[in-house]
Amino acid sequence: MDKEELKQKLADAVADMRRLTLSRASESARDTFGVTASVRRAEGRLFESSRGGLMLQLAVYTEDGKVRHINIPASDAPARLADLLLSDFAQLNIATLRGDFEARRAKDGSPVITKKLPKKGGAAAPTPPGAHNREKNVILHEGSHLGFLSALGLADSAGKIFDKMRPKYRQINRFLEYLADVVGRLPAEGEIYALDLCCGKSYLTFAAYYYLTSILGRKVKMVGVDRKHDVIKYCENLAGTLGWDGLSFICGDIEGFAPEREPDLVLSLHACDTATDIVLAKAAQSGAKVILSTPCCQHELYGLMSTPPAGLDALCSQPLIKHKLTDAFTDALRVLYLEAYGYSVSAVELVDPVETPKNTLIRAVLTRARDLNARRRYEEACAFLGVAPSKLVFDW
Questions:
Q1: 226-261 per-position pLDDT tens digit
Q2: Which of 48, 249, 265, 355 is most deeply buried (CB count within 10 A of its CB)?
Q3: pTM across the whole model
Q4: Closest alpha carbon to 261 in 242, 287, 279
């Protein structure tokens, strides 16, 4: 295939585009985009310019955590994307309503289409692009014929999300958006070693594996761990059916699970009560580079604070309010615990609380050595509350 034919294929894909990703960047990308740090990847979306006219916006992510935005007229996008693929990136993925398009640069420098779009006709018309900075950057697009979404029971065979599964679909997409924000903290080269602890039916496991491998083009070894034998068997069969060799599952208690090496990424979606503490402790003690965890059902501190400490007893007189307070105290202690292990931590809202009250996401990125002062703050907070989470223990 020559460059002109590639541009024709890209014009067809961009016309129905919902999202694109350029990955496996070369060092030349720094000069192309005028940045000082190495480029990690670039993500694109279409938007309607306030001056009129459709534009392609590229968000260029660099190794130092910065993002540079570049706007290109949509009519120029096929030629510009072809140039970028042939000089600065080795892989291009475009998600459309008709399916997914993928092109790569071969060793000899020529373009190769590795995933073709189906011909037009019969597919729903694409949603018109939103206004600048308003269109949500959904990663898993409805109608993109992502086979694993159908296999997991989230969508029908045409990729339409079932109404009852829309909250779960939005939850997973939002989780992936937060993962995309910190993916630059993962190793730039080689295999990514990722864990999903208390994976359950593994909606998130499959989605994260798809994002890292199919969209970003990375080699991944991902392990899901859960103690439900039937669920693990189901996940193993599904991974085999999809041919995802880098995805495996282990049936067992996460407390006894030992990572084979320092994990790059640890995920956990709604591990109940102290299971979240076990996940965080195991991830921190293993030196995980990135942790994304959504807690659920924080019960332990409520029971431990049967007699609240002086100063809090009046605030805890109502059981409902006490539940809410101890939920907040639990997550606050988790943040302090991770900071003691050298993580920069933020607690953010995952989805609208109308969909689930358990909507806090703890996002932690390893940035420094273990911090004795931060550990003292954690221990002082525990002393003030008169309790300590039983699973948030230190190994130093």
A1: 999 999 999 999 999 989 999 999 999 999 999 999
A2: 265
A3: 0.67
A4: 287
Residue 286 near residue 218 (C-beta atoms within 8 A): no
Answer for the pair 124, 97: CB distance below 8 angstroms, yes or no. yes
Q: Which residues of 333-346 are buried (b: 16+ CB within 10 A; e: fewer)?
A: bbbbbbbbbbbebe
Dihedral through CA 37, CA 39, CA 43, CA 48, nearest 10?
A: 50
Name beta bridge partners: 265.
Answer: 194, 290
Q: What local confidence, expressed as pLDDT, does residue 317 receive?
A: 85
Question: Can you list the domains of the chain with their CATH numbers?
Answer: 3-126 (no CATH), 189-385 (3.40.50.150)
Residue with tokens 């282990």: 250
Hey, what are 282's tokens? 């195991």
**SS3 string of the chain?**
CCHHHHHHHHHHHHHCEEEEEEEEECCHHHHHHCCCCCEEEEEEEEEECCCCCEEEEEEEEECCCCEEEEEEEHHHHHHHHHHHHHHCEEEEEEEECCEEEEEEECCCCCEEEEECCCCCCCCCCCCCCCECCCCCCCCCCCCCCCHHHHHCCCECCCCCECHHHHHHHHHHHHHHHHHHHHHHHCCCCCCEEEEEECCCCCHHHHHHHHHHHHHCCCCEEEEEEECCHHHHHHHHHHHHHHCCCCEEEEECCHHHCCCCCCCCEEEEEEEECHHHHHHHHHHHHHCCCEEEEEEECCCHHHHHCCCCCCCCCCCCCCHHHHHHHHHHHHHHHHHHHHHHCCEEEEEEECCCCCCCCCCEEEEEEECCCCCHHHHHHHHHHHHHHCCCCCCCCCCC
Taking every pair of Cα atoms in the chain, the longest distance, rounded to a whole number of angstroms, is: 76
pLDDT tier, 132 (very low <50, low <70, confident <90, very high otherwise): very low
The 10s digit of each residue's pLDDT in 5-59 is 999 999 999 988 878 899 999 999 999 999 998 998 898 888 776 566 788 889 8
Residue 200 contacts residue 209 (beta carbons within 8 Å): no
- Report the distance separating Cα 301 and Cα 273, nearest Å: 10
Tokens (6 digits) for 175: 């989780």
